[in-house]
Amino acid sequence: MALIPSQVLRVAILLSYFSILCHYKALDMPAHQTYGGSWKFLTFIDLVIQAVFFGLCVLIDVSSLLTKGADSREQERQLKKLIGLRDWMMAVLAFPVGAFVVFTFWTLYLYDRELVYPKLLDNFIPQWLNHGMRTHLHCSRVQCTNVPADTAAMKLSAHCSSASSDPAYVLSR
Fold it and tell me: What family is reported (predicted)?
């Protein structure tokens, strides 16, 4: 029952999503007090979708570790259902919504920042949280979709270096 690097990576990403969600919900912003609260922002919805997706990935990892070696057809059938749900969620929700949010936000931000992220928000949302809600989401999603379990050990150093580039980028600004 040894953990492989891709499983550890998914647990770390899930914990980072929960951290970002907790920090975002702790912000005292006037927009959170109006109708819809945080749920009216597609970025927040995307963050929740990604957290649920990676939670499902971690559940599948734990289930596969616990059922490894067991000859129960029922457990295998349930695991295949979870894997099917994960694949469906990635294809229908996690990747399309996530890619739309990230690319639309950064395109509009580069064109005219005031359209999507006015300077007034800098008083409420720290810069690291802004990047955590957008850049980190996309990087982690791409990393986990490109890491098959059997080649994860070879790519561990590459993922460690790219995982350290997100905080380095935010801190350098």
Answer: Belongs to the AIG1 family.
Between CA 53 and CA 83 the distance in angstroms is 11
Q: pLDDT tens, position by position, for the chain (173 residues)?
A: 455 677 777 787 788 778 877 777 777 777 667 777 778 888 888 888 988 998 898 899 888 888 877 677 888 888 889 999 988 888 888 888 888 888 888 899 899 989 888 888 888 888 887 777 777 666 666 666 655 544 444 445 444 544 554 454 444 44
Q: Where are the domains of the chain?
A: 37-172
Contact 49, 97 (CB under 8 A): yes
DSSP 106-162: HHHHHH-HHHHS-GGGGGTS-HHHHHHHHHHHHHHHHHHHT--TTTHHHHHHHHHHH
Cβ atoms within 10 Å, residue 4: 15
**Rounded to an integer, what distance in angstroms lies between the CA atom of residue 125 and that of residue 20?**
11
Evaluate whether 49 touches 8 at the Cβ level (below 8 Å): no
Q: Which two tokens stand for residue 7?
A: 């499983």
Q: How far is CA 39 from the centre of its chain?
A: 17
Cβ atoms of residues 33 and 73 within 8 Å: no
